[in-house]
Amino acid sequence: MRDLRRVDHNALRTNQACVVGFTVLAFLLDWPWLVALVAAVMLVGTADPRLALFQQAYHQWLKGRVLQPDEREDDPLPHRFAQGMAGSVLLLAALSLWGGYILLGWILAWLVVVLAAVNLLFGFCAGCFVFYQLARRGFVRSGSAHGGS
Fold it and tell me: How far apart are CA 73 and CA 56, in angstroms?
């Protein structure tokens, strides 16, 4: 059973834009700590959506002023799953960078940048796709016990 709720897709797009922007900035300035910070923001926001810093910035400052809400009936769980995947890959990227595996670290970081940009620009969420494939095979399930946006 799908747990459909009102999900503001502009909050999701703001999240994606911040991930892209801050991760590219981290690359340009060679700041592995910024990659780690973005990873932490993503992972904390996955664990508790009320703490999703980039989405909260949208709700506090952008919503209604710069961007109008784009609320849709949607299951929030695939989006949280995708955010957790991105945060995990960015954490691996930061650890790789700090561990001296510079090429691997930046490849992982750029993988997240490219996939977030594809989602932002074209609306295809690779993490959501993975979630739905796993759900189809019974590895994850959607439902009200897992919700949150």
Answer: 20
